[in-house]
Amino acid sequence: xxxxxxxxxxxxxxxxxxxxxxxxxxxxxxxxxxxxxxxxxxxxxxxxxxxxxxxxxxxxxxxxxxxxxxxxxxxxxxxxxxxxxxxxxxxxxxxxxxxxxxxxxxxxxxxxxxxxxxxxxxxxxxxxxxxxxxxxxxxxxxxxxxxxxxxxxxxxxxxxxxxxxxxxxxxxxxxxxxxxxxxxxxxxxxxxxxxxxxxxxxxxxxxxxxxxxxxxxxxxxxxxxxxxxxxxxxxxxxxxxxxxx
Length: 245
Known about the structure:
There is one protein chain. The chain is 40% helix and 15% strand. The protein is α/β, with parallel strands linked by helices. It has a single domain, classed as NAD(P)-binding Rossmann-like Domain (Rossmann fold), CATH 3.40.50.720. A hairpin with a 2-residue loop joins strand 7 and strand 8 (241-242). The chain is globular, with a radius of gyration of 19 Å.
């Protein structure tokens, strides 16, 4: 055996990745955090209530990568900024951002309602929350010329989707889709790709019973978060397939 020749070939170190998932203490976000951790990533599990986040992180203690609970309310700019500073200090990078924080699924609401407060809240979380978080975390991705931003959207926010219910949710997801396209265009050629993913109807606290397993809904999000280069950007996916905006 030619040991000299064998030792002259350097070992290839595994790529170290850090991911942040918002709204990750339950539901789809929790499962996304689990699956990313199983791929060996260090996962920052964002939760508005830190104790709930810590309980969720403890449930993932046996996964391959480290899971760390962090306080994150995407509607509060000071929390977003503080977290970005902390990540930069502790890790010096962020490779994956999953904008999953959500809610405001107003099943009974319609477009003629005079109460626009639910729509304002939905926009603040789905659109502006994703906007705040992406803007704050982009400098950490630009340091290394790599990033995967996944905005968790919904098919009911597509322009071809018709329906009179869930108007605040529907409108906010349509706005998130428009933001996704704009950010992807801005970042073209930077190594940072931005896509939206519809997880489908999933059996969670938000989606209610009858939906498909949360593992399946989360899988498409994780797939988009781990796209190898060269990766598509500015697309809308469901189950790894492109769907119309």
